[in-house]
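User: Run a structure prediction on this.
Assistant: Running it now.
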Amino acid sequence: MGLTRGCSKTGCARPAVATLTYAYADRAVVLGPLATYAEPHTYDLCLDHAERMTAPVGWDVVRLDGDYSEPALASDDLLALADAVREPAAARRPRRPEPAGSASRDEVAAEARSGVVESGRRGHLRILRDH
């Protein structure tokens, strides 16, 4: 599993370094540094495709910060990825059911004050409902 996003161009296996977005109202193509998250209606491009990109006839090209470099993952990003993988795996492990009424008085009082009650679980997610 690669940790970097790839170029959106068909058949290109290089890592993405820039994100392309169409601004239809302004008839402009905006090309900037790689977005933090992949979004719908945006296209990630490698360095070669970002430099050679052209716009449709009558449209403008807006290039933001033309120095594109491959993003490096910070240790926080790697820890977040590891936690995201571990959490669902831990939820699949069989757990011993807690005996009825095992919640502390403080937990029960906090739920009563908030008006929200846990009504079930799906993996590592809790299903909450209002009173």
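Residues 1-69 form one domain.
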